[in-house]
Amino acid sequence: MDVSRPKPPPISAGLRGRCPRCGEGHMFDGFLTFRPSCEVCGLDYESFNSGDGPAFFVMSIVGILVVGLALWMEITYEPPIWVHALVAGSLSIGLSLALVRPLKGVLAALQFTNKAEQGRFR
Question: What's the domain of life for this entry (predicted)?
């Protein structure tokens, strides 16, 4: 890897699913599975562990949006319950699938950039 080349911004690299060190290699091998290492610079992805962070942020964001939309729909249009179920179900599943991979990438890139490790007692 070229030492003079600056590191990419972690949020941008994570959202695109790119390597947090070089910004070119792919971070994911499947939908949510990390590759063993970067194919461009060789960064080892085995130490990346975003834990439940992506799930928490996805649930929070999707929950706020879906509940807000449901309240607005009820006040404005008063639709039958099946419309609420159809809209809320579709949005919940769609937004969750759309957000989980980019958020996992961002948390992994921030973990690498900030050199985050498991906490230890002395």
Answer: Bacteria
C-alpha to C-alpha distance for 2 and 93, rounded to whole angstroms: 41
Instruction: Give residue-wise pLDDT tens across range 99-109.
Output: 999 999 999 99
Q: What is the DSSP string of 59-120?
A: HHHHHHHHHHHHHHHHHHT---HHHHHHHHHHHHHHHHHHHHHHHHHHHHHHHHHTT-----
Written as six digits, the tokens of 65 are 């949006």
Structure tokens at 107: 């948390």
Residues 62-107: pLDDT tens digits? 999 999 999 999 999 999 999 999 999 999 999 999 999 999 999 9
Q: Which pTM does this prediction carry? A: 0.89
User: Could you tell me the two tokens for 115?
Assistant: 């050199």
- Residues 6+ positions from 14 with CB-CB distance below 8 Å: 20, 27, 102, 105, 106, 107, 108, 109, 110
